[in-house]
Structure formats: structure tokens, C-alpha cells
Design a protein that fits this description.
Radius of gyration: 19 Å
Strand order of the largest sheet: 2-1-3-4-5-10
CATH class of one domain: Alpha Beta
Oligomer: single chain
Order of helices and strands: EHEHEHHEHEEHEEEHEEHEHH
CATH superfamily of one domain: NAD(P)-binding Rossmann-like Domain
Number of helices: 10
Shape: globular
Distance between the termini: 37 Å
CATH topology of one domain: Rossmann fold
Helix content: 40-55%
């Protein structure tokens, strides 16, 4: 599609963690960005979605809004996470088709991959099994966006693409223990322990699982690149292409935050998917994306951001 300059681009979840970074990069490209906030539009309902299209009159929609959280939140809300994510995506794409939208960018999740996927995860293995149980309802709901995008392209010629970001981290992430992901949760635990003089922190699982992490600014750049340059129906992984064990991650965050106490592993809690590491070659071939932020550098920036937050906002 043409340049995003002066394009009317609507970003669902645009005030959130990833969304706020995407909005910044879109504005740098000269796009006219409409940020969708949940307090203004209930995207789970058809009326809310139709009203959004009437108000924003978008040419491009980037769908980032999601009901999401870590392992604990997924275990407590499987029905809600499935229903709300499915309804948001399905209705946004359908109403976009009816409105004559130029392009729909569906942003999925690495949780859509089967629990036991050969490493590195190739997009060709996306349907080779069932997702890890603790986040399967969320992962499958977001995976339906790929099915819908491909079906709409086939039947209606609708220009929809599907991106699969790996686990993200960086400034502005949620540090709320009830819903945070592993990196912000660990940063909060270690920083708070240092400030309070605590000698121990507790971490879920055994530490044996591995994860790949992508700095949020890199992911935002990938989404903008794909919005401008990618036009195919095949899903595309967005990641850094390397993994780290949770045990090594905890050691590294403890070192960077100055926490010198002990780590107590609660092995009664689940590890989640055993390994996550993406094959990121398709993104580089298709639209020239390669992650640029070194992992330790990104962690330092995230820790600095957390420590700069007022105490009453650290759990937000």
C-alpha cells in the first residue's frame, strides 16, 4: 500500500503498552492516528465497533486491543479471555470489510503456537498441535484472526495481514502482579525487594522453561513496517530470534537491579510452554525487519523506567 503519511489509521489498544509505542511511530510517519480506548468504545459489542468506524472513518486499522495477562490471569479467566478476544477481532474485521477498509493489521500472539513446537517456531508449524493449556483459550481466540483474515482475502479480496509477536517487554508495561508478564513481574519483585531490604523473592515454576523476548520499540517498528509493506496472507513471526531460560532471566534481572537475596522457586506453579523461540526470517525477507535492541540494554531501560515511576503507580 502507499505510504502511511496522511493516512487515517485507527489503533485499537492504542493507549496500552504496545499500542502507545505503535502510535508514536505512526505519528512519526505522518499518519493521522485515532487511538481507541476501552472507556470510549466497547469493542466486544457490535454497536461499539460500528460506532468506532463511524467516528474514526479509518483507512487502516491496526488491531492491538486484547484481554491478556500472565499465566495466573489466563488460568483465572479462560472463558472471558476467549470470548472477548474472539468477539473484538471478528467484529472489527467484519465491520472493516463492510466499511471498505483499505487494510486490516491483525496482531496475534505467540501463545497461538502448539505447546510442543520444534524450535525455532516456524509459521508453517502453527497448526501442528494444541496450544499450552494455561493460555490456550486466549491463544486460540487470537488465532481465529488468522483464519478470518485468510478467508476474507479469499472470498472478498479483503487486505488483512496477521502478525505473531513473541513475548514483549519494555517501558510502560503493566507491573500489576495480577496480570503482569514475567519481565515486569520480576523487575517489580527485585526492585521492591532492594528498596525494602527483603532477603528473598518468590518466582513461579522451576526456571527450566525458556522464552524469547522482544523490546517493545522493536515490535512497534515491525508492525509499522508490515503495515506499509506486507500484503500477503501468510502469518509472520515478529521476534528477536534468541531465547533465554527463566532461571537465567531471573539471575540477570537480579544482577541488573542489585538484588542480592535468595530466589525461592514455587514448583507447584506451572512453567507454561516449555520453550519459545521464533524463526524470524520471514519478517526480514518480507519487509526488512530485524530486532535492533540488545536484550541487556532493553532490560536496563525497562528497569530505569520502573524506578522512575511514583510508588502509587508501580502496580498499574
Amino acid at each position: 500500500m502507499p505510504s502511511l503519511k496522511a493516512k487515517r489509521v485507527t489503533v485499537t489498544g492504542g493507549a496500552g503498552f504496545l499500542g502507545s509505542h505503535v502510535v508514536e511511530q505512526l505519528e512519526q510517519q505522518g499518519a493521522k492516528v485515532f487511538v481507541v480506548r476501552s472507556r470510549d468504545y466497547d469493542l466486544v459489542t457490535a454497536d461499539g465497533v460500528r460506532r468506532l468506524y463511524r467516528d474514526a472513518r479509518p483507512e487502516v486499522v491496526i488491531h492491538l486491543a486484547a484481554q491478556v495477562g500472565g499465566i495466573g490471569a489466563n488460568r483465572e479467566n479462560p472463558g472471558r479471555f476467549f470470548y472477548e478476544n474472539l468477539m473484538m477481532g471478528a467484529q472489527l474485521m467484519e465491520e472493516g470489510r463492510l466499511a471498505g477498509l483499505e487494510k486490516f493489521v491483525a496482531v496475534g500472539t505467540v501463545c497461538a503456537y502448539p505447546k510442543f513446537t520444534p524450535v525455532p517456531f516456524s509459521e508453517d508449524d502453527l497448526w501442528a498441535g494444541y496450544p499450552e493449556e494455561t493460555n490456550a483459550p486466549y491463544g486460540l481466540a487470537k488465532k481465529m484472526l488468522l483464519v478470518q483474515a485468510q478467508a476474507y482475502r479469499q472470498q472478498y479480496g479483503f487486505n488483512a495481514i496477521y502478525l505473531l509477536p513473541v513475548n514483549l517487554y519494555g517501558p510502560r508495561d503493566s507491573c500489576d502482579p495480577a496480570k503482569s508478564h514475567v519481565i515486569p513481574a520480576l523487575i517489580k519483585k527485585c526492585c521492591d525487594a532492594v528498596e525494602q531490604g527483603a532477603g528473598e523473592i518468590e518466582v513461579w515454576g522451576t526456571g527450566q522453561a525458556s522464552r524469547e523476548f522482544l523490546y517493545v520499540d522493536d515490535c512497534a517498528r515491525a508492525i509499522v513496517l508490515a503495515t506499509e509493506h506486507y500484503e500477503k496472507s501468510d502469518p509472520v513471526n515478529i521476534g528477536a530470534g534468541c531465547e533465554i531460560s527463566i532461571k537465567e532471566l531471573v539471575r540477570l534481572i537480579a544482577e541488573l537491579t542489585g538484588f542480592r537475596g535468595s530466589i525461592r522457586w514455587d514448583s507447584t506453579k506451572p512453567d507454561g510452554q516449555p520453550r519459545r523461540c521464533l524463526d524470524v526470517s520471514r519478517a526480514e525477507r518480507a519487509f526488512g525487519f530485524r530486532a535492533q535492541t540488545a536484550f541487556e540494554q532493553g532490560l536496563r531501560c525497562t528497569i530505569e523506567w520502573y524506578r522512575a515511576q511514583p510508588r502509587d503507580r508501580r502496580a498499574a
